[in-house]
């Protein structure tokens, strides 16, 4: 009981901001290996390009081990992240908009996913994980140059590898869903061409540098010791800030604040939220890169935090509005998923429950009180859930990673120091994403225009942008 009280007290005191990158240095590769260090959510990925080695050095270097179970788990995790994006995120967002804009949201998420996956293979992977210094990678692996079916990537365990193609594919889904998340902020009034052009610019100049800084061994935030196991900073804060900037620059929907704009299908939103929850196990537990106890820890933390956030959100709704809603339950689940993402591999199960409970209440305030204070029409609450939830989760990662609170931190782990490191990383991410987003939106507005004409918005983007409708009477 004392331990639980201590956890609750510390979590309450820690409410603020902070998230970042946790990554372990992968063991040095043998002298016969050309290494490119990287990390998906803490791990360092390396490419084995077999080079000739002479004499005793070759004999002394242990052969790398590729476990079929690890490979199978990473293939499955990659598929799970695709599931959480299409159809998960697409249906979650689609159900929240009005019926006349349903297909436009599905189309935006679907095509953005496809676009970013291709760009990842062309130049994204090399700039994020293909060498480099503190801020960005190199072009050494442009068009996946030098990567073959025999190339290997490191895991958390020395000498244990996975095929690099698996790592490339897994990381491509992270980049794609991050860009897809932003769509919700300016839904129902943005040009389709603007969404695609913005996604290219923002992916190139915001996602890739932040991913490199947080997850690459030589990255600025990685070297600081920031903890971000599965993307709280790289994915959620990054996307949340971009969404908020977009909501301001695209402008409010016609009739916003004057007429009701209820979700057209909470049934589909619930289906989407459920797919997100299922797929998130690949997102979080897959970031462990191995099918072992580390993946099990990330999985149970993801399960518990999400359940706790669902309960706290609807509990807060009941107290403030008198009723618990299906929309609240779905939103609470997503808030818990977001908040636990940076912490899932380093905190204990009781810490995960506390993070979830706090996230549900804080994000409930984020989509109500904070949203009114900001005055932006963030249509599907990208910042209120992903931005704010990511910030909260990042900071609490610095608290509950402490071994005294059930975390996996070293004996000398300092909460105060880690909180400082986490907060520094959060602030860098916020500023970087905000500046890149502002410039990108302005460029897009000049080239193709951000917003559809008023008549098109009133009629609905399904017909005016895509020439089809989601439903027929």
Helix content bin: 55-70%
Write down the Rg: 22 Å
Total of DSSP H or I helical runs spanning 4+ residues:
16
Q: How many separate structural domains?
A: 1
Shape: globular
CATH top level?
Mainly Alpha
Distance between the termini: 58 Å
Question: CATH fold name, please?
Answer: Ammonium transporter fold
Low-confidence stretches: 1-59
Arithmetic mean of pLDDT: 89
Percent strand: under 5%
SSE string: HHEHHEEHHHHHHHHHHHH
Mind telling me which CATH architecture this is? Orthogonal Bundle
Main sheet attributes: strand count, strand direction, barrel closure: 3 strands, mixed
Strand order of the largest sheet: 1-3-2
Kindly report the name of the CATH homologous superfamily. Ammonium transporter AmtB like domains
Total number of strands: 3
Structural class: mainly alpha
Signal peptide: 1-23
InterPro entries: Ammonium/urea_transptr, Ammonium_transpt, Ammonium_transpt_CS, NH4_transpt_AmtB-like_dom, RhesusRHD
Organism: Caldimonas brevitalea
GO molecular function: ammonium channel activity
In short:
The protein is mainly alpha-helical and 473 residues long.
Note down, in words, how this protein is organized:
- It is found in: Cell membrane.
- This protein has 473 residues and is mainly alpha-helical.
- The protein has one domain: Ammonium transporter fold, CATH 1.10.3430.
- 63% of the residues lie in helices and 2% in strands.
- The chain is built from 16 helices and 3 strands.
- The protein has helices spanning 2-13, 55-60, 68-96, 102-129, 164-182, 192-215, 220-224, 232-250, 266-285, 293-321, 326-340, 349-374, 382-400, 415-447, 454-459, 461-466, and strands at 65-66, 152-154, 160-163.
- It has a 3-stranded mixed sheet.
- β2 and β3 (160-163) form a beta hairpin.
- The longest helix is centred in the C-terminal third of the chain and has 33 residues, at 415-447.
